[in-house]
Design a protein that fits this description.
Length: 199
């Protein structure tokens, strides 16, 4: 299968909607990135994306062509993830976080110290802070879209994003205006709109 990206995707509008089955593959890389940020485990992320695609495919009759399919897919993926978390909590008590810690898999990187430092710091953020930075930073959703997907107020999303970026800067020991060298576009997006500028 050839690689798809959002930039290659034909424009889907209410007047000229794309077939959702044709549009879905363009969103797979972003879905996988979001799944990795939630699970912090490559295999679990792939399973989560697969489960989400199955749910989306069987629910296309509920999707309104021409609307924001990526937001719709991310909502399905997020709900699937948290449903799994609740189920695992019922099935296996983990009061000390021992099982959760065992699910961690160090993300692959290209050996650049800055990127490694970023990922270590990013993984120290709380789940809600990682989630909001992926949604409004790396995935490019608006605060309003992120609020709709997560079921919280827009102000809460803005507050979480601000606190998450400040915490990330603190973990990276960056001063105001200091640059994070050697970061990829996703890192730059996550750090954007904060006191710290990624370069």
């Amino acid at each position: 299968m050839s690689a798809y990206s959002k930039s290659d995707m034909p424009k889907s509008t209410p007047e000229n909607p794309m077939d959702p089955r044709e549009e879905l593959p363009y969103h797979l890389p972003a879905m996988r990135a979001f799944a990795i940020s939630l699970t912090r485990n490559m295999a679990a992320a792939d399973d989560l994306v697969q489960d989400s695609i199955v749910k989306a495919w069987s629910s296309f009759d509920k999707f309104e062509p021409g609307t924001n399919m990526r937001a719709w897919l991310f909502t399905i993926l997020r709900n699937t993830f948290y449903s799994g978390v609740r189920k695992r909590r019922r099935d296996m008590p983990d009061p000390d976080g021992v099982h959760t810690a065992s699910l961690f898999e160090k993300p692959a990187h290209d050996g650049r110290l800055a990127m490694n430092d970023f990922m270590v710091a990013f993984n120290q953020l709380s789940p809600v802070h990682r989630e909001v930075l992926i949604l409004v930073g790396a995935s490019g959703f608006s605060y309003e879209e992120a609020a709709e997907m997560t079921g919280v107020a827009v102000g809460t999303v803005k507050s979480r994003a601000s606190r998450a970026r400040l915490r990330l800067a603190e973990l990276l020991k960056l001063d105001e205006g200091e640059e994070l060298v050697g970061s990829d576009p996703s890192t730059m997006a996550v750090m954007s709109r904060s006191a710290v500028r990624a370069a």
